[in-house]
Amino acid sequence: MAMDKIDFAKAQMIAKAKGLQPGRVKGTEGVQFTKGDNERLTVISWEEFEEALEQRKLGIYESGGWMKIMKA
Q1: d(Cα 24, Cα 4) in Å, to the nearest integer?
Q2: Taking the model in full, what pTM does it have?
């Protein structure tokens, strides 16, 4: 199944429906979605998350309810 790039608002809606929050990998610039129970990740604001994606030229892709962050 192909991954389709989705806009930030749709990704945020999907994430919230799945109980996911935006997170930053501690000690790196990496970002990913988290349920908030991973000690390697720090939960950040949606604004910080969106800014990090833009700065690193990353996009959010979705297929069948699964989301993945990749180079845009």
Answers
A1: 23
A2: 0.89
Give all strands (DSSP E) within the chain, no chain letters: 4-6, 21-25, 31-34, 41-43, 58-63, 66-71
pLDDT at 51 over 90: yes
Instruction: Give the mean model confidence (pLDDT) for residues 3-18.
Output: 96
Return the residue matching tokens 């996009």: 59
Neighbours of 67 (CB within 10 A): 18
Give how far the C-alpha of residue 55 lies from the chain's centroid of Cα atoms, to the nearest Å. Answer: 14
Strand partners, 16: none
Extract the tokens encoding 72. 């845009």
CA 14 vs CA 29, 47, 55, 61: distances in Å: 23, 16, 22, 11
